[in-house]
Amino acid sequence: MSKFTNHVIAGEGRPPWYRSDGQNCDCYIVGIAGGSASGKTSVAQRIIKNLNVPWVVLLSMDSFYKDLTPEELEIAHRNDWDFDSPNSYDYDLLLETLTKLKEGKTVDVPIYDFETHKRVPNKSHTVYGANVIIFEGIFGLYDKKVLDMMDLKVFVDTDTDICLARRIKRDVAERGFDVAGVLTLYQRFVKPSYDTYVYPTKKNADVVIPRGLENLVAIDLLTKHIQRQLQERKMQSRWDMARINPPEELPKSVVLLENTKQVLGIHTIIRDINTSRHDFIFYADRLATLVIERALNELPYESKNVTTPTGKNVHGLNQKALVAGVSILRAGGTMEIGLRRVIRDAVIGKILIQTDPSNGEPQLHYCKLPPAIVEENTYIFLMDAVVGTGAAGLMAIRVLLDHNVPQERILFLSFLAGPQGVHTIANAFPKVKIVTSFMDPILNTETLFLEPGLGNFGDRYFGTENE
């Protein structure tokens, strides 16, 4: 696997995964079944092209073939192994993968090598989140548990002679088989399996598409149906909580820097409209260092005895946890220099979240996270400059949770926060610590970018195109 879990989506971003009642908003699963080489993948790709929505995952059942033992491999290389039996697939792994995808979580899909008849060791395809999952395979409509997860079930019904011709062409050109071997497998296993197992699953389908990809009218009608279903399932995200009137008392999960003269002095400088960009960067880096140093106090430590250069034994503490930083772009990147000053070897990931102007909901556009975030002794410093409504913070924390980072190992760091934002995040994720240097009682979504001297924190730090 690559060093980072990396997802870049052009255009519209991925919407939130949760509803106002706090439950995950399941994605839409389309199951496509049919005989071998019936055109299932082509139909799936046509649907994806027609949908024209981001974050669509095409999942092939071929990825879930079971690994063969050495004895079974010998049989397979003699073209005597039945790969068209339902028992050839790892249904437990398939069900686990579909379940996680439906919940919006990250998964590692195996890569299967048809020439060696084994999964490629230490390699997988990382998939994170989906608006729509297109799942295709000959037994796509076979297993009861998998069927129950599907929102729409499709069977591609193509003439068996056409399927055979396509299979010969595909297996010889793409999978390294010879023609005689393909015909042997087809006569002994593929055709009997289709008659016994695959074709009977046609009765489980909501829609049957005759002739596969040739039937463009049926595919286009099916696509429009899916689009209508997606439109109806749009739900308001969890950040509706930002509209509540927060109580005066701060949540217990909020850690506020001591209101020292130094902190007040730095805030005075960075919020002054007359402060130069050079000075703004200098004092923002200083403040970031103070916030990160305060966050380190929330990490676990253990006792440690050391010997000094003079030979004396001294009792001290040793930080047990490692730290990885994750910036919410672009303003969260303003804390990265401070993080490097305090923790020299900290790895840093990035998340880009932007607000949809049509409905005010946050959308994920980019996600690049280091694999170290899932290690048990790694704590995540999630960094953003300002917490206004808490909408971006909610989504960023949700992204980390979907990558199997527990709440108690997430610390949300900011320069400045408003009561609405911290209460929103604390209500949704009470185990996440929020560390900030200053609470502004009047900071909200209306004043966030209009307040004199504050402006857009990222623009003041990194500059604009005109600078």
Describe the structure.
With 467 residues, the protein is an alpha/beta fold. The protein has two domains: 26-232, P-loop containing nucleotide triphosphate hydrolases (Rossmann fold, 3-Layer(aba) Sandwich); 238-462, 3-Layer(aba) Sandwich (Rossmann fold). Helices cover 33% and strands 24% of the residues. The protein contains 13 helices and 19 strands. It has helices spanning 40-51, 70-77, 91-102, 144-149, 160-174, 179-198, 216-232, 261-270, 277-296, 336-342, 391-402, 419-428, 457-462; strands spanning 5-8, 28-34, 56-60, 106-113, 118-128, 132-136, 152-157, 207-210, 254-256, 301-307, 313-319, 322-329, 347-355, 362-369, 378-383, 386-387, 410-414, 416-417, 433-436. Strands 1-14-13-12-15-17-19-9 form an eight-stranded mixed sheet, sandwiched between helices. The chain has a five-stranded parallel sheet with strand order 3-6-2-7-8, covered by helices on one side. The longest helix is centred in the middle third of the chain and has 20 residues, at 179-198. It is elongated, with a radius of gyration of 27 Å. The model is unreliable at 1-14, 16-24, 235-243 and 444-454 (pLDDT under 50).
